[in-house]
Amino acid sequence: MNADFAELPPDLPIPEDDGAAEHLTEMSVPTLTLPSTQGGPVDLSAAGRGRLVAYLYPRTGVPGRSLPTGWDDIPGARGCTPQSCAYRESISEFSWLGATVVGISAQTPGEQREFTEREHIPFPLLSDSGLRLADALRLPTFEAEGMTLYKRLTFVAEGGKIAKVFYPVFPPDRDAGEVLAWLHRRRA
Q1: Strand partners, 125
Q2: Which of 3, 29, 127, 185 is most buried, judging by how many CB atoms fall within 10 Å of its CB?
């Protein structure tokens, strides 16, 4: 099966809040360096000293490769491409609000690089194939076809601490808009 990764099927199951992110607000962004699609590694704690918007996603689709079996039946799994593209379309507004945007998944740097080139993603995607951030922050994950993947979650860090968590994120293509609305309210 070849999927159109940019489209969200109309009948996707809605993820429920399982409480797996309740502990994150006010936690410090860990000192953790992850490979980036924009060259050298990114130190999350350094990026989090300013205003950091980090969205975590399961994995982007690859043209010509089938989605994992049952992918559309896993609440919150589908939608990584629309989510990333929404951030791409809003990047100038995030910059205007003083926010650095990064996307994080457990995919390899090569997989992420292919995606950024194909979809013209202008901000860094970080590879956490060892799930080190998940371990450091006790982030929610799920299993699919032998892979451990991030559940979709977005956090905003300011001054080195997590100020806001969006979880669960659904629908994923509206995540960037919801984060921007929160940043505008905070600015007012």
Answers
A1: 103
A2: 29
Q: What is the pLDDT of residues 137-158, one digit of tens each?
A: 999 999 999 999 999 999 999 9
The answer to whether the CB of 35 falls within 8 A of the CB of 129 is no
Name the domain count of the chain.
1
Tell me the C-alpha to C-alpha distance, in Å, between residue 166 and each of 17, 25, 63, 129.
10, 10, 29, 22
Chain centroid offset of residue 100 CA: 13
12 part of a folded domain: no
DSSP 52-63: EEEEE-S----T
pLDDT tens, residue by residue, 76-121: 999 999 999 999 999 999 999 999 999 999 999 999 999 999 999 9
Instruction: Say if 15 falls within a structural domain.
Output: no
Global pTM reads 0.95
For residue 117, being part of any structural domain is answered with yes
The enclosing domain of 125 has a CATH number of 3.40.30.10
